[in-house]
Write a structure and sequence with these properties.
Blueprint lengths: L23 E2 L2 E6 L2 E6 L8 E5 L4 E5 L4 E5 L2 E9 L6 E8 L3 E2 L5 E12 L11 E13 L4
Antiparallel strand pairs: 1-9, 2-3, 2-11, 3-4, 4-5, 6-7, 7-8, 8-10, 10-11
Length: 147
């Protein structure tokens, strides 16, 4: 197939050629790994992000201000509190949101990592590490959803 027939070819002006679908940044991620499932949407019907976290103990859904966002040199990290508290400590989940480009009608494979953090809160303050992190390899799909 020559470059004129390629579905990814561009015109001299850099615009997509006729018949080529424009690539868009994914706004919906459906990922899983090591007994957890995560769905993350950068925007939704109300114009707010949402994240659903499922593991063997719980199913939780978060939206809007319940999701913390941090931009890093390697991408966006979103974090939710699965449990906040003094007794038993806190449990957080963080997702490194992969940068994936897709067409409006197709999904693409996506790979990333999630981190489940457990923070023990004890009085008096214990000696040693207070936060335990488990890094989880996640795989699934990324797509564009129109809300």
């Amino acid at each position: 197939m020559d470059s004129a027939e390629s579905p990814m070819s561009k015109t001299a002006a850099g615009e997509p050629s006729q018949g080529q679908q424009r690539l868009l940044p994914a706004n919906f991620y459906d990922l899983s790994g090591e007994d957890i499932d995560v769905s993350y949407s950068t925007t939704g019907i109300a114009g707010q992000p949402s994240l659903t976290y499922i593991d063997e103990e719980e199913t939780r859904t978060f939206s809007g201000d319940q999701i913390e966002h941090v931009q890093t040199p390697f991408g966006e990290v979103v974090t939710v509190y699965l449990r906040r508290g003094r007794e038993g400590g806190s449990k957080l989940f963080s997702l490194l949101v992969p940068q994936v480009n897709v067409t409006s009608q197709e999904s693409a494979r996506a790979r990333s990592h999630g981190i489940v953090s457990h923070q023990q809160i004890l009085v008096p303050i214990p000696y040693g590490q207070e936060v335990r992190n488990k890094v989880i390899r996640l795989t699934g799909t990324a797509s564009v959803r129109m809300f």
